[in-house]
Amino acid sequence: MSNHTVKGRKIRVSVLVLCLSLAIISCRNQITSSDKSDDGRMYVDFIDVGKGDCILIRSGGKTFLIDTGYEETVDTVVQYLRTREVSQIDGMILTHFDKDHIGGAKDILKNFTVSQVYMPQYEDTGNKYAKFKEYVDEHMPQIITYVTEDRTIRTGGMEIFINAPKQSTYKQENDYSLVTKITHGEDTYLFAGDAEKKRIKELLEKDFIDADILKLPHHGAIEDNSVQFLEAVSPKYVISTSLTEADTDQMIKDKVTDMGNQNEIFYTCNGTVTCVSDGKRNYEMKGNENKGN
Questions:
Q1: Are 286 and 273 in contact (CB under 8 A)?
Q2: CB-based contacts of 243: which residues, under 8 Å, 6+ apart?
Q3: 174: Cβ contacts below 8 Å, ≥ 6 apart
Q4: What's the pLDDT at 36?
Q5: What separation in angstroms does the CA of 254 have from each of 34, 245, 258?
Q6: Among 18, 83, 240, 285, which residue's CB has the most CB atoms within a 10 Å radius?
Q7: What is the spatial distance between Cα 187 and Cα 73, in angstroms, rounded to a whole number?
């Protein structure tokens, strides 16, 4: 075999390897660019942590987290955030101190740089709250903001409105829940924590609760004013963080169905639900393969 033939084959192989490398890089760039938080769109991931809340929000290069799920599910949350290339959390909103909302908070602080934590101000005797509070008090007390009055944060193309509970004490701990509305252009999201009857009554007296995307209060449990609340919010899409579809109350399901064909419930028990919106009320919902109403 001549030197020219060998040299020609080497050149062809080199060119082939280069083309394959460029194709792989191009493919990776396409995959990454479809899930960047600085592309003008807003990404909201309702992470499957069982009967619990953990919601990742990304827009304009900014990252927020509403609740953290259980201590037992925090490894799943940490891994999920890392697959989304999250290294810093600009704000973490802890709606209240039940273990299915605050359980993973300490480990989130250990694994990520968290700029600010927003939480209600009340005392809780739960073990998960105690562990979180002890860690924060020792290592980073300056990051805590107690939301005792309504607060608005403008960042990353979002307006984040945190509605504080109006009473200093409640019979039901769930009624201490911070309720958050996020506006992104014309897009509107309402995250209702575990609000029960008293807290829902407070919300019904406000004029900010209408939203296209609603995270149901208290995992889809029914209250006397739940139907009225759904009517007032008038959402296009509803997300339930119940353990199973059957755990979301049937009256809630029926009301969502009655509100029109466009309305649909997405269940995190079927896997993480992702909503991508463009600021013009165009919503792309992903997940919920086993739909049920």
A1: yes
A2: 50, 51, 219, 269
A3: 96, 98, 193, 194, 195, 196, 199, 218
A4: 59
A5: 35, 13, 6
A6: 240
A7: 30
Q: How many residues does the chain have?
A: 293
CB atoms within 10 A of CB 24: 10
Place of tokens 């953990």: 54
pTM for the whole thing? 0.86
DSSP H or E segment with residue 68? none
Residue 192 Ramachandran class (φ > 0 left, ψ -120 to 50 alpha, else beta): alpha
Burial (CB < 10 A; 0-12, 13-18, 19+), residue 104, is buried
Query: In this structure, how many other beta carbons lie within 10 angstroms of the beta carbon of residue 106?
Result: 21
Angle between helices 250-258 and 226-233 (to 10 degrees): 30
At 7 the pLDDT is 47
Residue 109: exposed, middle, or buried by beta-carbon count in 10 A (0-12, 13-18, 19+)? buried
Pairing of strands 213-215, 113-114: unpaired
Radius of gyration (Cα) for the chain, nearest Å? 22
> 235 and 257 in contact (C-beta within 8 Å)?
no
Mean pLDDT, residues 225-234 taken together? 97
pLDDT in tens, 4-42: 444 455 445 444 434 444 443 333 333 233 455 678 999
What is the C-alpha to C-alpha distance for residues 104 and 135, in angstroms, rounded to an integer? Answer: 12
Identity of the amino acid at 290? N
